[in-house]
Amino acid sequence: MISAQLPALQVILPMFAAPIAILLRRGKLAWMLALVVTWIAFAISLVLLFQVLDDGPIQYFFGGWAPPWGIEYRIDALNAFVLVIIGAIGAAVLLFAGPSVEKEIREGHQHLFYALVMLLLAGLFGIAITGDAFNVFVFLEIASLASYALIAMGKDRRALTAAFQYLILGTVGATFFLIGVGLLYAMTGTLNMADMAERIHEIHDSRAVLTAFAFLTVGIALKAAVFPMHYWLPGAYAYAPSVVSALLAGTATKVAVYLLLRFIMIFGADFAYVALPLGATLAVLAAIGILVASSSAILQNDAKRLLAFSSVAHLGYIVLGVGLGNDAGVTGGILHMFNHALAKGAVFLAMGAVMLQIGATHINKLKGLGAVMPWTMAGFTVAGLSLIGVPLTAGFVSKWYIVTAAIDRGWWPLAVVMVVSSILAVFYIWRIIDAVYFSPPGANTENVKEAPVIMLAPLWALAGASVYFGIDSSFPASVAGKAAAIVLAQMP
User: pTM score > 0.90 for this model?
Assistant: First the structure.
């Protein structure tokens, strides 16, 4: 039955679509192919999530070979939720992409652009779904190489520098990750992550295991842009094509945080949080990163770069929730992965619509756009409220989880950090809203029209979801709670 092959199809469809897009050699045809494949992948991710919620974890053995001899795809509540995040953002971004890519990518390169997007999605899906540690590395490199090339396609020459910086730091992170996996394989004799988790508890005191944990944590933190290893992210998001900024902001770093959670599960939550000071270390770094990135965002004059620093701050919220190491904290961190993906995807899509119409995202160039692009800027405003954490938006719900978790742990200064950062978010989001609605229009707004409906639809789908899940967060919060229970299963 086709339903039994869904885990494999989740990765195979976008992987096979990449070379087909190249063979099509026409941007419009490649876009249509990528759009269909991405929406099918999104539907598969939803089916897999509901199967997991109804029947428990799913195991898929390639070639009928059971692990540890064969490659296993294993899906539980945690990675099923991540698959939905990737699928949802990918589906929204690809629907938006048609007019945006025609504007920002040269005609002869558009089919290559969509091929790279397919490879990126295949890599991200693969990282989330595979149960083999070396396969994680392979998919990590597929996604990373596609990301470097996509960022370099930006029109601004600084996109090349941003892509190169990401390449260097991403390679360092991947090397650290591979060294960690190699050490674990040497100590456990297996690459299957479930099998590795069973064997590793007997050798926790080994120096090789401790070293592997350190290498893996640092490597993943580089990929996740955890402060102070976030240097690559602002430039990458600011100078990449608009579609790439939205896609990476909504998916790539979330998948990296998922990897951190997955390896915490392999080593055991008791080992990571009790035997080692991982939780406290992550919490401190996250708190500093939240304040530094939020303050830096206020100082930016380009809207995309401002939103990039905002992403660093929100990654800090997610990592802070993970670092708290209690049920509410990890639930809040996982939930914020979803909520932030919705809101940040929406605001970057709004900037993509602005880029299409006026060719710039400098804040001074946005003056008066609220009158000529009312639906675009209203969508930005709604999603911006979620980034701030205003009640009745999704951002408020996940922030509330993390704040209450910090208070429950007795780490009240972290709750203060969350409140201060939300106040700072009011200032940097207000800078854009002030220019859009309360500043006299500039000459660049003359003859500017509203974005096409095909761009407004995904923008408002994400912005509307940020409000809907702020009013009724029961479903994503429930899934995040089940995922957090899996991560913390071995806590004393």
Answer: yes
Q: How many helices (H) and strands (E) does the chain have?
A: 20, 2
How wide is the angle at C-alpha 146 spanned by C-alphas 143 and 151, nearest 5°? Answer: 120
Widest Cα–Cα separation across the chain: 69
CA distance 454 to 110: 18
Report yes or no on 285 lying in a domain: yes
The pLDDT score that the predictor gives to residue 102 is: 83
User: Please, which residues have CB within 8 angstroms of residue 481's CB and are 6 or more apart in sequence?
Assistant: 327, 331
Nearest Cα neighbor of 26 from 107, 104, 103 is 107
- What would you report as the CA-atom Rg of the chain, rounded to the nearest whole angstrom? 21
Determine, yes or no, domain membership for 290: yes
Pairing state between β 72-75 and 58-61: antiparallel
Tell me how many domains the chain contains.
1
Q: In 389-452, where does DSSP find H-type helix?
A: 394-409, 412-438
3-state secondary structure of 300: coil
- The helix/strand/coil state of 268 is coil
Q: Quick one: CA torsion of 370, 371, 372, 373, rounded to 10 degrees?
A: 30
Strand partners, 75: 58
333 burial via Cβ count (<10 Å: 0-12, 13-18, 19+): buried
How do residues 243-257 score in pLDDT, each as one tens digit? 999 999 889 889 999
Query: With bands split at pLDDT 50, 70 and 90, how would you rate the model's confidence at 64?
Result: low
Half-sphere exposure of 447 (CA within 13 A, CB side): 1
H helix or E strand, kind and range, residue 473: none
Percentage of residues in the chain having pLDDT higher than 90: 44
Q: 407 lies in which domain range?
A: 274-492
The Cα-based distances of 32 to 24, 26, 180, 241 in angstroms read: 11, 10, 40, 19
Axis-axis angle for helices 278-298, 412-438 (nearest 10): 20
**Model confidence pLDDT, tens digit, residues 365-406:** 888 888 888 999 999 999 999 999 899 999 999 999 999 999
Local confidence band at 63 (pLDDT 50, 70, 90 cut-offs) = low
In a domain, 369, yes or no: yes
Single-letter residue type at 165:
Q
Helix (H) or strand (E) holding 35: helix 27-55
Q: Is 231 exposed, middle or buried (0-12, 13-18, 19+ CB in 10 A)?
A: middle
Q: How far is CA 235 from the centre of its chain?
A: 16
List Cβ neighbours of 343 (8 Å cut-off, separation of 6 or more): 383, 384, 386, 387, 393, 394, 395, 462, 463, 466
Residues 241, 105: contact at Cβ < 8 Å?
yes
Are the beta carbons of 49 and 73 closer than 8 angstroms?
A: no
Domain membership flag for residue 376: yes
